[in-house]
Write a structure and sequence with these properties.
single chain, about 120 residues, seven-stranded mixed beta sheet, four-stranded antiparallel beta sheet, about 0% helix
């Protein structure tokens, strides 16, 4: 079974940066896709970014595409999300997810437990 564990969340001031990590363990597949989602207080979970195994396909939500960078290190089985120019609207619980299928329309099948990111004004 694939398992995901997020880390790196915390408290940061407006304009600051933070890097999240997601450790991937267990048996995976060749057509795997990894992504980040977030759930803000009182809101539903929303897509943030995703990346194929080769790194040739990446996608970002419009709200973060100029500030966040998704990357992965397959030798360490780790997914990253570098977050820059953070603002209070970025405050949320961030989840990494494992998906299968195509990079444009994956099926998300495994979720991590989430890590809290709080941006103070």
């Amino acid at each position: 079974q694939v398992q995901l564990v997020e880390s790196g969340g915390g408290l940061v001031q407006t304009g600051g940066s933070l890097r999240l990590s997601c450790a991937v363990s267990g048996r995976t597949v060749d057509n795997e896709i990894l992504g980040w989602f977030r759930r803000a207080p009182g809101e539903e979970r929303a897509f943030v970014a995703s990346m194929s195994r080769s790194g040739s396909s990446t996608f970002y939500a419009r709200s973060v595409e100029d500030r966040f960078i998704i990357s992965r290190d397959n030798t360490k089985n780790t997914l990253y999300l570098q977050m820059n120019s953070l603002n209070p609207e970025d405050t949320a619980v961030y989840y990494c997810a494992f998906g299968v299928g195509t990079s444009t329309s994956p099926t998300w099948v495994v979720w991590g437990q989430g890590t809290q990111v709080t941006v103070s004004s």
